[in-house]
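Internal tracking record. Fields below are filled automatically when a chain is submitted to the structure queue. Please do not edit lines marked as system-generated. If the sequence contains nonstandard residues, flag them in the REMARKS field before resubmitting.
Queue: standard
Priority: normal
Entity type: single polypeptide chain
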Amino acid sequence: MRKFLAIICLSFLLGTGALAKQIPQPVQDFINKDFPQTNFRFDGAIILPDNTMYLPVFPAKTSDNTELTIKTSYPVNSTMKQKPDMIILDNNFVLLKVLNINGKKTVINLAETPEELQTGLLPQDILLPKGLVIPTSLEGIIGNIDVTVTQDTGLRINNTRAKGKNSTTPVEPLNGKTFFISSGANKNIQVVNSNTQKPEYALEQAYIINDMKAYNNEFLLVTYYDFKSMNIISLMDEKVIKQVNLDSVPEQILIDSKNKLAYITSGSNSSVYIFSLETMTLKKQLKINGKCEKFTLAQDGSKLFYVDRNTNNIWVVDFEENYKLKNIGNFPNISKIAYSNGKIYITSRTKNRMAIVNYETLEFINELEVCEKPVELYATGDDLFILGAQENILEVLNTKDDVITDKLFLNTNSFATNITPIENSDLIMITNALPGLYSVVDTEIKEVIKTSPLDIPVRVIVITDTVKTIK
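SYSTEM-GENERATED OUTPUT FOLLOWS
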């Protein structure tokens, strides 16, 4: 094992063009008094906990008031808690409620438009609800926003073949969830209700999907082959809400929910882009060594491991040491990397072997024989789950003692390829490159607790709560 070469990563702030206006903190505080779980979306939309949506109209001139009150409302003398159709605050900021009248979305249309509304402007990056009708008297607040027509259905493509025997009963934490699946068979994202086997509909895509992740049960972040942008899809609207343009093709996406960050990799440009999930903007670009792939984020988000596909060298970016880059060593035919209890675990797909390395000293600890064709690793607590595709087996390694404690045989009769954690539970989902079945494993008791049907193959899967559309 050679000594590591420590270098400081090059990082710089990225210019991202005009940013969406953020709702001023006094306005947020005013709304949060009555609706503390309000979502102030990065594009400026204000969405109350019951999905009632308000459009913010920024005034041409505002005051510095920190504690706001209502100057005018419609209906008159309404409070925020009553969710009126329009509120004008005493700093001239206007809130317009999105109304549903006879099946059409619109906003209030007054005979006499208040001056604060006439002279204001909507955030220019806001995604308006599809089919929203803006009254002629308010067209001045639109600016350069693209207002979609009433018949616009976003990305949705209905599936006429989802009929017939289709229901299934999933394990409880998956009940009522939604699966977003890239099958590899076509470009589109297949949308499956967890209580069914077949896609209900699809979200149309223009390019072949490389990777896909969800954030906050609200957005899909999607990268594509041969496309130098990452799309952000709003699940409430089923539309691309933002396109993040990069100077090279983005590939893998890793989510650090605790710190509200995403790491977007680009092997062709030897880069990792650090992306804020709060503002949906790029923060930094880290230049790293090699044609990077097979990225793994440590459980606590402190380290990012990867492989140089040209040399089989393993590297780590240590965020706790000011983005220090360390070379771990060279291993043949690397399939996956994991990190647990201060040790690095590296599997070789062709040799069915796992190497164990001490992170601090970089000393080689041991080498173990593992299941055939180890294609995926998942670390949780002191356990490391090793997925073997050849025999559809899941081995459990205790990372304190580095011994295999359990072997779970999956009865899906397919080529298992993915481990997907199920949020807010100790469960993981095992999916396959061929259609048929998926397995759910309890990582606490180390048992396969459910095998359920799924009529499409899975290359990438994202699990979210079923999202309600905006009222």
